[in-house]
Design brief:
It is a single chain. With 564 residues, this protein is an alpha+beta fold. It folds into 4 domains: 85 residues, Phosphorylase Kinase, domain 1 (2-Layer Sandwich), CATH 3.30.200; 171 residues, Transferase(Phosphotransferase) domain 1 (Transferase(Phosphotransferase), domain 1), CATH 1.10.510; 31 residues, no CATH class; 108 residues. 56% of the residues lie in helices and 9% in strands. It has 19 helices and 11 strands. A hairpin with a 4-residue loop joins β3 and β4.
Length: 564
């Protein structure tokens, strides 16, 4: 076993033991250089009878997780195969499993269970949309971590597999009895996306009733036989999830997500209330004599309908795995009458544009038109949200604009950062960052002309100071997107490589320049390689950085020659 205080691979200092299973021990560790905590999972080779078989499962699990990037999934950072053990470095997830919540408190409130299930549907929608699709196959409360913020994380991909059509050999009794679908037991069919639907239904049943389907009598009853106060709508959803025939279940995570979003609408009490509301409405219409009263009633109903339509489109967008369909739903939400000023749909649309890290003119024209049409309502009712939209749109232009000239995006971003600054007020949280982006953007917008006129003296000092500010506020912010952080580091590296002589001429101290190079190196090391794009961008910066350092050494007369 690893010792508390020991350092793994020269980077991960073991702080404490946080859990132990049959084959492994999990520790909390810290990378002191990056000031980041991780989970360290150790499998001792001498503690497992058939270690090579176990190792194959662990390698398969890590290979799957390395390809994934989702807020409700852990990320694998490192895999270390030592002489004595197999060690996996992954995200440290604060909180406890839902199984522990059941042990301590029994059945959970159905509102919580539905919210957790929706998050898990989003995870399954993501997994099932991979190429090839990833089937999880071991959904149960013990494999779901509940974090302090109320969100959940799906862990333990030991039984997950990539879907292969007509591959019936994968159904060899994998999963947990009681939660596992019938097809997970040999000879009863192939596991697919609907297998995870069954397991999630069994998990919801356990959470909302407190009755463990993996214990005798190994059955899933209608939930209101156990607790009559539970929703009949939720009961119908769970019953459809756990049908023995996959054809009778929900056919996708998106379909189940939609049902959970509207579970009240299939509830018996809801239907009864709706009938009563209809009767009251008819009676009011018959008895209504005063036209003014009728007008007020109709206006209220229209407002409610608009609000319901807006929220419905947002919910529909959240349930979509297809990015084009998601964007269409968000545009429809913005176009709902009297709802166009609300910022939620705009911010989600900006996130959808950034899904592939490419922002096009077509996308900009679409959102610019929507903002122009609704700007008065936005600035008068939702000014703070409008400021957030301007800042996020500026960031999107800066880092993701699709143009052969890499400076076109930053130049276009200036206007949106200025709008955020103008409307954000003196206490605006991103004021300093906006000012830095604007100053750097103005520099690249004007520098060529100023160099040609010989008037560029004095322009490089504010450039260096503002790039330093962006490193401190953006690149070193672990909450920021990895791509955005790397783009800032790429900007800083390019600045040093291109303008080292000019930086010296503007009296930037040599120590400050080389301190920035060290900071770039340190920052890059702290950024996890979750996607191929991140890996490629990191490698590009690391390839350029030695040349930038060499240019700085030449400029400051410290270059000694030789290979870096």
């Amino acid at each position: 076993m690893l010792e508390i205080g020991s350092v793994v691979d020269g980077k991960y200092k073991i702080l404490s033991k946080v859990g132990q299973g049959g084959m492994s021990v999990v520790y909390m560790a810290i990378n002191e250089k990056a000031n980041k905590t991780w989970a360290v999972k150790e499998v001792r080779k001498d503690g497992v009878l058939d270690f090579e078989s176990v190792k194959q499962g662990l390698v398969a699990e890590t290979d799957i997780l390395k390809k994934l990037n989702h807020p409700n999934l852990p990320s694998i950072i490192d895999v270390i195969d030592t002489e004595d053990s197999f060690i996996i470095i992954m995200d440290y997830i604060q909180g406890n499993s839902l199984n522990k919540a059941l042990e301590e408190y029994g059945a959970q409130p159905q509102e919580y269970v539905i919210e957790w299930a929706k998050q898990l549907c989003d995870v399954f929608g993501y997994l099932h949309s991979r190429e090839p699709a990833i089937i999880y196959r071991d959904m149960k409360p013990a494999n779901v971590m509940l974090k302090p913020d109320g969100n959940v994380t799906l862990i333990d991909f030991g039984t997950a597999r990539e879907f292969k059509e007509r591959n019936l050999a994968d159904t060899t009794c994998l999963g947990t009895v009681g939660y596992a679908a019938p097809e997970q037991f040999g000879g009863m069919g192939q596991t697919d996306a609907r297998t995870d639907i069954y397991c999630l239904g069994a998990t919801m049943y356990h959470l909302v009733t407190g009755c463990n389907p993996s214990e005798p009598p190994y059955e899933i009853k209608p939930i209101r036989q156990i607790n009559p106060t539970l929703s009949s709508g939720l009961e119908r959803i769970i019953e459809k999830c756990v049908q023995r025939n996959p054809e009778d279940r929900y056919q996708s995570a998106a379909e189940l997500m939609y049902a959970l979003e509207h579970y009240e609408e299939i509830d018996d009490q809801y239907r009864k209330k709706q009938k009563n509301k209809l009767s009251v409405f008819i009676t009011m219409c018959v008895l209504c004599i005063v036209c003014v009263i009728s007008g007020v009633v109709l206006n209220v109903m229209a407002d409610k309908k608009a609000t319901d339509s807006y929220q419905g489109y947002l919910d529909s967008a959240d349930g979509q795995a297809n990015i084009t369909t998601k964007r269409e739903a968000l545009v429809k939400a913005i176009n709902v009458i009297d709802q166009g000023g609300k910022p939620d749909a705009y911010l989600r649309l900006i996130q959808a544009y950034d899904f592939d890290n490419v922002f096009t003119d077509e996308e900009f024209n679409e959102i610019d038109t929507l903002i122009s049409v609704n700007k008065t309502a936005m600035t008068s009712q939702y000014l703070e949200g409008y400021v957030d939209i301007c800042y996020e749109l500026g960031s999107l232009y800066w880092f993701s604009y699709d143009d052969s000239n890499e400076m076109t995006g930053p130049k276009n971003a200036i206007e949106w950062f200025k709008r955020a600054l103008e409307n954000g007020g003196e206490d605006y949280v991103n004021k300093g960052t906006c000012e830095a982006y604007i100053s750097v953007g103005e520099f690249y917008k004007n520098i060529v002309g100023q160099i040609e006129k010989g008037k560029d003296l004095g322009m490089y000092k504010p450039l260096f100071e503002n790039v330093s500010k962006l490193i401190d506020t953006v690149a070193q912010n672990a909450e920021e997107s990895e791509i955005v952080r790397l783009e800032v580091l790429d900007l800083a590296t390019s600045m040093i490589y291109t303008y080292s002589t000019s930086l010296k001429r503007d009296d930037i101290p040599e120590t400050d320049v080389f301190a920035m190079i060290e900071k770039i190196n340190s920052c890059i090391e702290s950024i996890p390689e979750r996607t191929e794009k991140i890996t490629n961008l990191k490698n590009s910066i690391l390839d350029t950085l030695p040349d930038a350092e060499k240019q700085a050494e030449i400029a400051y007369n410290t270059y000694k020659g030789g290979n870096k």
